[in-house]
Amino acid sequence: MYRFLLTPRWWGINVFVLLAIPFCVFMGSWQLGRFEDRMQDHRSVSEQAESAEREPARPLAELLPVDRSTSGRQATATGRYGEQLLVPDRTLDGRRGFYVLTMLRVEGGRALPVVRGWLPGDADAAKAPAAPSGEVTVTGALQASESPGADGVTAAGGFPAGQTGVISAASLVNIVPYDVYDAWITLADADSGMTAVPAKAPQNTGLDLKAFQNLGYTGEWFVFAGFVVFMWFRLLRREVEFARDAELGLVETGPDGSSTDGDGEDRSPGAASTTADGPGAADASGGEGGSGGRDADRAPAAPTA
């Protein structure tokens, strides 16, 4: 009954199923692993942020370059404030405002971008308090350079003089006349009536939309694997039923490959049209002549005089 599994058609079906199921399971497991990695990163960042608040601040040079292990750590640097810039369209606690960003010139001439605080409303240089003069020592959470289009970071350009949309060395080096660290810090205690800007988690470490997309893709791949198995059993059941009917004589395969039932009637799709156009049609077209002849044979003879 299962000899049909050895036909070339079923060899192709079986090979496809044997390749498709492991592939779908592998892709689903990989997407699930990506989601679990993001969950672990989120927990690690949360624990790191809590421990960073308790740890003493460390010199900036000891924490560079910024990576996941140093992002959010408390860093300290000493220098003199230089140029001051505004970073518009930044939201804090659901309110729109702007950052006050000031360059801290440290020993060696390089500058460290320092977010001294946040103010509500449109970016206005008149609202931003002046930076302290003289040598200062600042302490704040170390952050990696921003990327255009990231969460809360505008990708637009064409800002007025004295403003920038992205806090990164790549953008600031075109504004200030000196080298800039590929990092920045946000002060834990904001200056002069401004609101302190909390540290951000490193990119691709939070439970954002991408993380839940990975979870959704996991479900899709496992559904695909189940669908392949379902369709294989459905085709197998159909072939088994056909083979069983053939063994019972309910279905026969003629020399031309058409299927017939046990009475010899052709069950192929073209059988009905052939019958309708064949003998049945001839009887219908010749019905008048044939019935007329039979009626004439049965008619009584006319009486003779």
Automatic annotation (TrEMBL):
One of its GO terms (cellular component) is plasma membrane. Keywords: Cell membrane, Membrane, Transmembrane, Transmembrane helix. The keyword Repeat does not apply. Its main location: membrane. It holds the Pfam family SURF1. Residues 252-261, 269-285 have a biased composition (Low complexity). Residues 68-77 have a biased composition (Polar residues). PROSITE patterns: SURF1. The chain crosses the membrane at residues 12-33, 215-235. Residues 43-80, 251-305 are annotated as: Disordered. It comes from the Bacteria. InterPro entries: Surf1/Shy1, Surf1/Surf4. Residues 43-57 have a biased composition (Basic and acidic residues). It is a multi-pass membrane protein. It is found in: Cell membrane; Membrane. Belongs to the SURF1 family. This is SURF1-like protein. The lineage of its organism: Bacteria, Bacillati, Actinomycetota, Actinomycetes, Kitasatosporales.
